[in-house]
Amino acid sequence: MSREVLCVDDDEVTRYLLKRALELVGFAVTTAEGTEKGLELLKQHRFHLVISDYNMPDGTGTWMLRQAASAGLLRDTEVLIFTGTPHVEDAAGVQVVAKEQGTDHIVAQVLKLLGPEPGQPQGRGPPPSALQERVMARIELVLYTAGPSPASMRALRQMKNLLARYDPAQVDFKVVDLARGRPDSAEEDHILLTPTLVQRNPLPRTWVVGDLEDTTLIEDLLDHSGVERRE
Q: What is the distance between the alpha carbons of residues 148 and 182, in angstroms, rounded to a whole number?
């Protein structure tokens, strides 16, 4: 029987991307659009893992987890917070993953937390190469933003709306907020302006500068890389 995961996030696209990515590696995934719905589902069912966004309109993910723990709803349940904010309060004892690290990184952390499937003999599962093939992206995209600037927020919305029309397992999409610092990747990608979208793989590297109001070029990059559209 597949391990069961509850994903809580107020953003519909993020819920979809996480659900698809986790299902591709064998998990059974239920989603909730906020903390109240998440608590309701936890009262109805036992999950092996709860993975929650931190900052949502009806409360924080850490608040939801405290409420669930105090009600005895998290016995033998792993928990994980993922966030796009630099400051997470009341997260003692809870693993925190940055959203900008991408879906593949979150899936890797889930696999570490839950381990092998129950009842599956060690060494009898699919070889690592087969598992990697199932989550391997056909294109790597990095969106460089500058905090909550209007242009950066528009670019992020445009990317989320566009990627919702493609198979998320085939797209490695990361967001790097340069307002929090300038990582080595920004130097490697020669970022001078924000927002800028960079296709890092497959080569040649391609840059798209601006708020991405016109996504025609990005669609061409995705199609040319063989990323499949959703039906």
A: 16
Instruction: Single out the residue of 183, 175, 227, 224 nearest to residue 204, CA to CA.
Output: 224
Give the integer Cα–Cα distance in Å for 90 and 88: 7
CA–CA separation, 8 and 12 (whole Å): 10
Report cis status (omega within 30 of 0) of the bond before 168. no
Tokens 């309701």 found at:
40
Cα(96)–Cα(53) distance, integer angstroms: 10
* Distance from C-alpha of 207 to C-alpha of 190, rounded to nearest angstrom: 10
> pLDDT tens digits for the chain (231 residues)?
688 999 999 988 788 878 888 888 889 999 999 999 999 999 999 999 999 999 899 999 989 999 999 999 998 899 998 887 767 776 666 888 887 677 777 888 888 888 654 544 444 344 443 334 444 578 999 999 998 899 999 999 999 999 999 988 889 999 999 988 888 888 888 888 899 999 988 888 899 999 999 999 999 999 988 999 987
| pTM over 0.85, yes/no | no
